[in-house]
Amino acid sequence: MQKILFLLFISTQFFAQDTIPISKKDLEARIEGQNLSVKLANDEVNIAKASLLESRAMYLPNVTASYTGISTNNPLMAFGSKLNQERITMMDFDPARLNSPDNIFNFATKLEVQQPIFNKDAVYQKKAGEVKVDVLKIKEERTKEYLQFDLNKAYLQLQMAYKVVKVLEEAKNTTLANKKVIDNYYKNGMIQKSEVLYMDVRVSEIESQIQYAKSNVRNASDYIYFLLNEDSQNKVLKPQDEFSYQENILEQNPTLNPNRKDLQAYEKSLEAYDWMIKSSKAKFLPKLNAFGSFEVYDNKPYQFDANGYLVGLQLSWNVFDGLKAKSEQEKYKADLSKAQTEIQQYQKQNQLELNKSYRQVLDADKKVSLTKLAWEQSAEAYRIRKNRYDQGLEKSSDLLSAETMMSQKELEHQQAIFEYNSALEYFKFLR
User: Fold this and answer.
1) Are the C-beta atoms of 172 and 207 separated by less than 8 Å?
2) Looking at the domain covering 19-58+119-283+330-430, what would its CATH class be?
3) According to CATH, where is 2.20.200 located in the chain?
4) For domain 59-116+285-320, is the CATH number 3.30.2350?
5) H or E element, residue 268
6) pLDDT tens for residues 378-398?
7) pLDDT tens, 230-259?
8) Mapped to the 3 state alphabet, what secondary structure does 105-153 carry?
9) How far apart are alpha carbons 182 and 395 in whole angstroms?
10) Is the pTM of this model over 0.70?
């Protein structure tokens, strides 16, 4: 009874899953707007853009407002506060009052404006920030290209998983047909019990393989849902495109495409170092800034009887800063040299990887041809043994061995096609 309930539970779980047909084209249309890796790359671009907004301070004014209240009998502060309040009289020039003034209150309202006019170092820093945004945008495009490669590979895995299930189910049907014949022979006393048991073992073996293959179908489907950033609960994808050999003619001695997005991003990043070097040099150039303030004073809070203003220009030079700017120049130059070396190393590593991938495609292509030939030969061998068995000239164990070999060679051929298609996708991604 428990076994029956368990089988019913498994059956319910299986039929509760929705099998959703999907084409590769449909996946490509959905994935870019939903994938988490693309979203993260886009967030990095937005963060760089937000940081770049700080550079607006190099040409926009800085405006501050304040309200201050003080109480003092400091001679200088008391006289100055009273002067700002426009309440000075001749009695205030009495030396005794000047030296020992009475306590005085002062309430000041101040509006202050600072306006940058010429700061060349800030201009160069902004240029470096703009380059950083461009680099991150290019990296985002490369992320999308990698996502496309990952999607193609995941779709191939899903196709392969379904193909394995199909091959195994066909092998099971063949085995069951042979088992039916063997069972009849056994009933008629023409063969021994051991031959029937061999066939039962083969059926159990195939059923186990089918169960494992169906688990791989679910695993491949779940990974695609992960790429889509969607919930895979009780849903299984089924490819609409046929799993087939993607014939492709490759050029000999392939070279890296200089327009590849990651290579472009590395080359573009060098510009940022150039701008930072210029920015550190520009710190020795004069800086011109304007400033101004409007002030209102009174000896009572929230009274505004006296006022005044101040405007001016400031031209300044950083004559010597303890070699800080010079040290920055040397640091940026060293960073630039390091980045150039890293780019050379990265290009050579990727050229090696491209060459390796090229050879893998050729090897996989050869393997497809060899496994196809082996599959065809094993199928012919099975056909011959089946005819001889039907004529009573072969043992059932020989027939079972031939059928097992044929099924194995077909699976090896399908695996070879998968390896070739995957290697080809990776080569295209690197190229």
Assistant:
1) yes
2) mainly alpha
3) 59-116+285-320
4) no
5) helix 261-282
6) 999 999 998 988 887 778 888
7) 888 888 999 998 888 888 778 888 899 889
8) EEEEEEEEEEEEEECHHHHHHHHHHHHHHHHHHHHHHHHHHHHHHHHHH
9) 10
10) yes
